[in-house]
Amino acid sequence: MVGDKLKLADIRDSVVNKLANKYSNINIYDEKQKQGIIQPCFFVQLLPITSTRSSFTYNNNVAMINIQYLNDSTDTLECLNKKDELEELFIDYLEVAGEKISILESESNIAFDSLGSILTYSITLDYYKKIKDYEERKTIKEVNFE
């Protein structure tokens, strides 16, 4: 995927919107809340990993989306089902501003604490971003080594 004006916030917002469309009855937080969360809920965080210049005009970027599902139950089956649903929701690619970003891999982890269970589901994204327009450059026709 190549995006001219793709911003990291656009990627995060696309994930939040995709979750909101699927889970309209579950709260979704894209910032860390210290108090007042209502479970079950999702937390979404975007972590840029690398940005490598792949050509004169493009960067190759890798980013990770971390989705946490908090549930006040210690029922493992609920987390396993939610993991399967997230895997279906984020299969192959993520559409952002009409462009498709490849999903390289996904990982999941389930943990339990005094408040219930936490499913952490992470996807790694790979995309190209245009950093500047191509400039026509003059080629040297003759080189004199005197």
Automatic annotation (TrEMBL):
InterPro entries on file: Phage_tail_terminator
Domain of life of the organism encoding this protein: Bacteria
Protein name (database record): Phage protein
A Pfam match: Phage_tail_terminator_8
